[in-house]
Specification:
Distance between the termini: 18 Å
Number of strands: 0
Helix content: 55-70%
Shape: elongated
Number of helices: 9
Strand content: under 5%
Structural class: mainly alpha
Largest sheet: none
Amino acid sequence: MDYNQHLKMFVALAFCETGDVTIRFNTLADEFIRIYGSTDQHEQFLDYFETTWVGRSRLRPRFSQDMWNCKQITENDLPRTNNSVESWHNAFQGALGCQHPAVYKLMKALQSEQVGVNALYVKLMAGEKVPLYARKEYGNANQDLLTLIGRYSVMTPSEYLYNYANYTAYD
């Protein structure tokens, strides 16, 4: 395993059970220092991660694990980001054609948007499947992640973190 893959294993903590995050972080941090050495940069990274995301024995993290953990929302097919909101906003802004439209133009755009929402509602009420993802590859990637999360309890902690590191691609 290379250095970057090892760093991705820390990201995988967001897809672990919240009750397992601290112990998995400690194990991962010890392994990271053992393999790559106790440099100032490594110690600062681990200190930041622990202070901000994991917490210490008598000090809560800046952001609670319940706030940033994505395992349960992923299992429930809920969005992990606000990308869909950003996408809608960009499309709506494009439909308006300007930053500050006249009230009449805004009302027409909102009515048009409502027609689309009503059509989607009718499809959902009829039992029709509506795609959650705009692009097929996003849906496939999410399904792969769900498969990995589904194997959480049958993999060792290191296997799970390692497999997540291999699943994740950052450009």
